[in-house]
Amino acid sequence: MREWTAERVAAAAGARLVQPPPAGDGGPARAVVDSRATEAGDLFVGLRGTHRDGGAFAPHALAAGAWGVLVDPASADVARCATPGVLLAAEDPLGALQRLATAWRRELDCAVIAVTGSTGKTSTKDILAAMLAPRRRTVPSPANFNTEIGLPLAVLGAPAGTEALVLELAMRGPRQIAELTGIAEPDVGVIVNVGPVHLEVMGTLEAVAAAKGELLRDMPAGGTAVVPAGEPLLAPHLRADLDTVTFGDGGDVRLVEADGDRVVVDARGERIELELSYRQAHNRLNTLAAVAAAQAIGVRPEGRLDVPFSALRGERVDLPNGVAVVNDCYNANPMSMRAALDDLAVTTPGRRVAVLGDMLELGEREREFHREVGRHATAHDVDLLVTVGPRAVAMLDEFDGEGHAVADAGEAAALLDELLRPGDTVLVKGSRGVGLEAVVEALAAGAGTAG
Asked: Following DSSP, what letter does each residue of 266-289 receive, concatenated?
């Protein structure tokens, strides 16, 4: 937005220009909502929170060199007394931020790919971004910028000249994917899968599918829908005016060969050979979704694909004491738990250890889902299972190996200090609220000394 005037920014956001820039007509470089992260040239947007109004921090943002602030009218009046800068006022600063993002997305006039799913959407986004980057100027949404706040920030962070935007869409309930789709106006919509997540809110898998299906429902006509082959839950949400591409076994884009790092993909009759920096079965499936999306915007991926996956998502760390840790503790649900255990089974030569925490928001079937994970751990030859939290203990009901139940991450780290030995591989996974990254940090700091 550097080339936009303050007047144009205000018009795009549906805001009132209270105070023009002190000099020059240039626009902001990006938007931020945390005054502590404000840098010179930023537009600070003061959002109303549960306990505080972010607009109160507008003077701090201006003092830090912000190009300007977008706040509610009352906060704009207070900010008049601060360091000079552009003052934009809107009754609903969040809505103004979202409108500004849509305007910038249209200005970029680039290919926009939106990715959602019950599990694996971040990894798919990472794979797709790496696939497109050598061939298009590509900007993926950073970290977890996938909500009604994060998504517009991701769009506004894309510089002029961007040729492909890869955006992740998160969902906690109905109508949220629709809101994000309205902001992003994607050309390609990818639904990686549909599974038992947020069931406390959604109630049924059909409701989860309908929420994910909002992406397909609200995409502009003529776009491309990328969906798993043979997924009946999504069938009611497909549209005749979208080009639907299926991926996976029996799909339009499918894996035909896999030998170590090398894979061969049949993408609608086109043979594509890739050398992957990862071998997990679930990420190979995610790769098929990424190939379908890339092909939809005219990119033919080929050759070596090195993917820097986002933090806390299956990163393997080899410790000096001979223990390997698979750090997959960003989040968890029954689908991702099974996938992680599958990978542990095929990649671990030594003793398999799983530290599994509570899976949250599963509703009335939560005990059943946790028991199923325990059964899956037994079937995939986990040697030692440590459950963390009051829900995860149900996994031990169906687990036949050595099992221990602890209350929290601190207890888990202390127990592992006694139980681990050289050659062990430890999978650490649970819902974000369990905080299992503390286990990984303790092991990396030496708490998991071989015994």
From this structure: EETTEEEEEEES---HHHHHHHHH
447 band by pLDDT with thresholds 50, 70 and 90: very low
Class of CATH domain 315-447: alpha beta
**Whole-number pLDDT of residue 78:** 67
Q: What's the burial of 246, exposed, middle or buried (CB within 10 Å: 0-12/13-18/19+)?
A: buried
Q: Which helix (H) or strand (E) holds 71?
A: strand 68-71
Return the CATH number of the domain spanning residue range 6-92: 3.40.1390.10
- Domain locations in the chain as residue ranges: 6-92, 109-305, 315-447
| Nearest partner of 369 among 405, 331, 340, 332, judged by Cα | 332
Q: Which CATH superfamily is domain 109-305 in?
A: Mur-like, catalytic domain (3.40.1190.10)
pLDDT exceeds cutoff 70 at 79:
no
- β-pairing, 68-71 with 43-45? parallel
Burial 150-186 (b: 16+ CB within 10 A, else e): bbbbbbbbbeeebbbbbbbbbbeeeebbbbbbebbbb
* Residue percentage of the chain with pLDDT more than 90: 79
